[in-house]
Specification:
single chain; alpha/beta; 6-stranded parallel sheet; 29 helices; globular; disordered C terminus; binds adenosine-5'-triphosphate; binds magnesium ion
C-alpha cells in the first residue's frame, strides 16, 4: 500500500508537471505549425507569412455585404482575417468561442464568391434556424434532408446539376454526405461544372471521438476534401483542445489549413457557483426566485438538467411557480421538440429546461441566463453549455447549482469513459474552489494565459472572507472509519460515510480540534476534495438497474495518516470583505426605454407577419439600443444604423414607431419635435434630448457624440470586447 502511495505521489507530481508544460508545449507546437502553414502557401508569396488583415481586392464588396445584407457595422475579432483566408482559397480551421460569430465567416464568403456553398451541420433544428435567418436577409438558402419536400428537392438538384436557380447556400446534415449516393453525384456535377464555391463544416468537433459531442457520421466528411480538392474547406467549432484540433486536421484532410484560434474568454458572462440545497423542492424554489427576481421581463434563459425525467420535473415545478417554462430532450418526438424550441426562440416561452443536447449552435443572441441544475461532466461541457448565454455580447449570467452529493451521481455515469473521471474531477475542483477566478480556470483549461476577469465571477466579485480550516485530523477519522468498513468487507457511499462520520464525532464528544465545528455540508465537501486529491477514491459496482459509486481508501491516504500531508478545506465565513461590489454584475438589469419596448413589440409583430422569422432577424438588441440613442429622423439615417436590407424591408414601420413614440415622449416633456424637421430646441441632438430627459437608462448607452458610421465600432469595443 505504501509503495502504491509513493508511486502514485510520483505520478501525481509528474502529471502536475505535464499539466503545466502541456499548454506551453502546445503553444510552441501551434506556433511551429502556424509558421509551417504560412510558409507553404498555395500562392506566389512562397515562404512569406500571409497577413490576413491586409487589404484585399474584395474588401469593399465584403464590407458592403457585411453591413447592408447582414446588418453588422464591423467585424468581430478574427472574422475579417478568416473571410480573407477563405476568399484566398485556403482551408481554414476556426476555433472561436460560442456566440463569437463563426457563421459569418462562411456565410459572407458564400455570398461573395460565385457558386454554391455547401454547409454541413449536425442538427436539423440548428440548420432550420440558420436557413430561416438567411432567407430573412434575402440570401437564397436551402436545406436538404430526407424530409425536404419534392418541390424543394427539385429546385436544389436543378441548381446543383445545371446551375439553374438562385441557390447560394445549401445546408445538409453529415448523414447526407455519408449515406446519399444520389446527392454526392449531384454535388460532383456541381463541382465539375465549376459551381461549388466553398465547403463549410460547422460544429466540427463532432468529428473527433475525443470531443464531447462525437457523431460517427462526421468521421466520413474527409471525403469532401478528397472529392473536391480545389474547393476551400472551412472547419469551425467553439471548443477544441489541441488533441481535437489535430484530429480534425487529419480526419478532414486539411493539413495545410490556416488555423485561427480565438480566445475562449467571454468577458460579458458572469460565472457563479451556487450552493445547492439537498432538498429538491428547495432547489427549484431557489431557481424560481432567482429567475423572477433577476429576470422579471421575460428575458430568455436555459436550465440544464442531467436526465430527461429531471427536465420534465423541473420544467413543471418552474411552471407551477409562475414561470413560463417547458422541457426539451431527446426522448421527445421531433415535432414536439421543435415546437418548444420555436416558442422559446420567439420569446413566447421564457425558459427551456433541457439536457445537454439542447443548445448546440443555437443562435438566440439574447439568452440572458444559463442555469445548470446539476454538475456538468467536464469543464468543456460546462463551457459549451454556459456559452449559450449572451452571444449578443451583453451582460449575461451562468449559474451552476452545486452540491457534493451530485458528484457520485455523475461519476457513476462517466467512469467508464476515456478520462471520464479525470474530466469530472477537474469540474469538481472548479465548483469547490472559493478563491480561483472562474474565468482563469477556463483559460487555464484551454491552454490560454490569464486575462482580467473584471469582477465577472463570484470569486472575483463578492470578496467573501475565506477561512482555511485544517482538516488533517478530521481526515484521519474518516480514513480510520473506512479502514473499519473495509475490514468487515462492507462498502459505503459518500453520503453514508458522512453519516457515519457525524455520529462518530458525536461519540467523540466533539472535543477534538475543530472537527465538530464543521457542518454536514462541509464534511461532504471535504470527502469530495479527498477523492479528487487521491487520498480517497471512488469505486463502482453495477447492479441490474444502475451503477453505484462507493468510497474507499485512495493511493495517498497513508501520507495523511503519517502526518506527511496536511489537508485544508476552504470555507466561507459569511463575512464580506470591504465594500467590494456585492451585486452580480451579470444580474444588473437594464431598464428598457419606451422606444425600445415599442420596437420590441414591433419586431415581434413583423416576425409573425413574415412567416414567423425570428425577432432578432428583424432587429437585434443592439439595433434597438442604437435607434433608442440616435433616433434617426429619416430612412437614410436609419439605413446608416441598421443597413440596407432591413431598412428596405421594415424601414417604414420602424420610422413610424419612432415617430409615434417620440411624439408621445415630447408631449410628455413639453418639447416640440417633428421627425421631418430639425428639432426646435436649437442645437439639441434628438438623442441628447432623450438622454437629457432621463428616459433612457440603457446600460450600453452610446454617447451622442459618436458619429453614426462609428456606432457599431463603439459598441464592439466598449461593450462586446469588454
Ligand atoms: N461582426 C458582428 N457584429 C455584431 N454581431 C455579430 C457579428 N458577427 C456575428 N454577430 C452576431 O453574434 C451572434 C452569434 O453568432 P453565430 O451564431 O455566428 O456564433 P457562433 O460562433 O456560430 O456560435 P455557436 O458556437 O454558438 O454556434 C449572432 O446573433 C450574430 O448575428
Ligand atoms: Mg454556430
Amino acid at each position: 500500500m505504501e509503495l502504491e502511495g509513493e508511486l502514485h505521489n510520483h505520478n501525481h507530481n509528474h502529471n502536475l508537471l505535464q499539466d503545466q508544460t502541456q499548454p506551453l508545449l502546445e503553444r510552441s507546437l501551434l506556433d511551429e505549425l502556424k509558421e509551417s502553414q504560412t510558409s507553404t502557401p498555395q500562392n506566389d508569396n512562397e515562404n512569406a507569412a500571409e497577413d490576413w488583415s491586409r487589404c484585399f481586392h474584395w474588401d469593399s464588396r465584403a464590407d458592403d455585404i457585411r453591413f447592408n445584407t447582414f446588418g453588422l457595422s464591423s467585424y468581430r475579432a478574427n472574422q475579417r482575417e478568416i473571410i480573407n483566408a477563405v476568399m484566398s482559397g485556403r482551408d481554414v480551421l476556426v476555433i472561436m468561442a460560442a456566440g463569437g460569430g463563426k457563421s459569418l465567416c462562411y456565410q459572407l464568403p458564400a455570398v461573395l464568391r460565385d457558386g454554391i456553398t455547401l454547409v454541413v451541420s449536425p442538427l436539423l433544428s440548428l440548420i432550420q434556424d440558420q436557413v430561416m435567418g438567411l432567407k430573412a436577409l434575402g440570401i437564397p438558402a436551402h436545406v436538404l434532408t430526407s424530409t425536404t419536400c419534392k418541390e424543394d428537392e427539385k429546385v436544389i438538384y436543378k441548381a446543383l446539376d445545371r446551375g439553374i436557380g438562385a441557390l447560394k447556400i445549401l445546408y445538409v446534415t453529415p448523414e447526407k454526405i455519408s449515406k446519399s449516393k444520389r446527392f454526392m453525384s449531384k454535388l460532383e456535377k456541381c463541382y465539375h461544372g465549376g459551381r461549388l464555391s466553398l465547403v463549410a463544416i460547422d460544429e466540427a468537433h463532432c468529428c473527433s471521438q475525443w470531443a464531447h459531442d462525437f457523431r460517427p457520421d462526421f468521421k466520413d466528411l474527409g471525403i469532401l476534401k478528397i472529392q473536391f480538392p480545389n474547393i476551400p474547406v472551412a472547419v469551425l467549432t467553439a471548443t477544441a483542445t489541441y488533441k481535437v484540433q489535430m484530429d480534425l486536421i487529419e480526419i478532414l484532410h486539411i493539413p495545410k489549413c490556416v488555423k485561427f484560434v480565438s480566445t475562449v474568454n467571454r468577458p460579458n458572462l458572469f460565472y457563479k457557483i451556487h450552493d445547492k440545497s439537498s432538498i429538491g423542492k428547495c432547489v427549484v424554489d431557489e431557481i424560481a426566485d432567482f429567475i423572477k427576481g433577476s429576470y422579471p421581463n421575460n428575458e430568455s434563459g436555459i436550465v440544464y438538467c442531467l436526465s430527461k425525467k429531471e427536465c420534465e420535473k423541473v420544467a413543471k415545478d418552474l411552471h407551477d411557480r409562475g414561470i413560463s417554462a417547458d422541457f426539451y430532450h431527446e426522448g421527445m418526438d421531433v415535432v414536439s421538440r421543435e415546437k418548444v424550441h420555436l416558442r422559446w426562440k420567439k420569446s413566447k416561452l421564457q425558459v427551456i429546461v433541457g439536457t445537454v443536447t439542447f443548445g448546440m449552435g443555437i443562435d438566440k443572441p439574447d439568452v440572458r441566463f444559463v442555469i445548470h441544475h446539476s454538475l456538468s461532466e467536464s469543464l468543456e461541457t460546462y463551457y459549451q453549455g454556459s456559452g449559450r448565454a449572451g452571444s449578443d455580447g451583453l451582460p449575461s449570467e451562468c449559474v451552476l447549482y452545486y452540491r457534493p452529493g451530485d458528484v457520485p451521481r455523475q461519476s457513476s455515469m462517466v467512469f467508464y469513459e476515456n478520462c471520464g473521471l479525470q474530466n469530472l474531477y477537474d469540474m469538481v475542483r472548479y465548483c469547490q474552489s472559493k478563491r480561483i477566478c472562474r474565468r482563469s480556470a477556463f483559460l487555464h483549461h484551454f491552454g490560454e494565459t490569464a486575462q482580467d476577469c473584471n469582477g465577472m465571477c463570484d470569486n472575483c466579485a463578492y470578496g467573501f472572507e475565506i477561512k482555511e480550516v485544517d482538516c488533517s485530523y478530521v481526515t484521519t477519522v474518516i480514513i480510520s472509519l473506512l479502514q473499519q468498513i473495509q475490514e468487515i468487507d462492507q462498502k459505503t457511499t459518500m453520503l453514508q460515510l458522512v453519516d457515519r462520520f457525524m455520529s462518530k464525532i458525536k461519540e467523540l464528544g466533539g472535543s477534538e480540534e475543530s472537527a465538530s465545528d464543521l457542518k454536514r455540508e462541509e464534511i461532504e465537501q471535504l470527502v469530495i476534495q479527498l477523492i479528487v486529491d487521491c487520498i480517497l477514491k471512488e469505486e463502482f459496482q453495477h447492479t441490474a438497474y444502475s451503477t453505484n459509486a462507493y468510497v474507499t481508501l485512495g493511493p495517498l491516504w497513508k501520507q495523511v495518516l503519517d502526518g506527511k500531508r496536511r489537508v485544508n478545506l476552504e470555507i466561507h465565513t459569511n463575512h464580506q470583505v470591504g465594500s467590494n461590489n456585492s451585486t452580480d454584475k451579470g444580474a444588473k438589469r437594464k431598464r428598457t426605454s419606451r422606444l425600445e419596448k415599442k420596437l420590441d413589440d414591433l419586431r415581434s409583430e413583423i416576425s409573425s407577419q413574415h412567416g414567423g422569422i425570428f425577432p432578432h432577424s428583424v432587429l437585434s438588441l443592439q439595433h434597438m439600443s442604437l435607434l433608442n440613442t440616435h433616433k434617426p429622423t429619416s430612412l437614410d439615417k436609419l439605413e446608416k444604423l441598421i443597413g440596407k436590407v432591413r431598412t428596405e424591408k421594415y424601414g417604414a414601420q420602424i420610422m413610424h414607431a419612432i415617430e409615434e413614440c417620440f411624439n408621445f415622449e415630447s408631449s410628455d416633456s413639453d418639447q416640440e419635435f417633428d421627425l421631418n424637421k430639425t428639432p426646435k430646441k436649437k442645437g439639441t441632438h434628438p438623442s441628447q434630448m432623450h438622454q437629457d430627459s432621463g428616459v433612457s437608462t440603457s446600460e450600453f448607452k452610446v454617447p451622442a457624440t459618436i458619429p453614426d458610421d462609428r456606432i457599431f465600432d463603439w459598441i464592439d469595443s466598449n461593450i462586446v470586447a469588454k
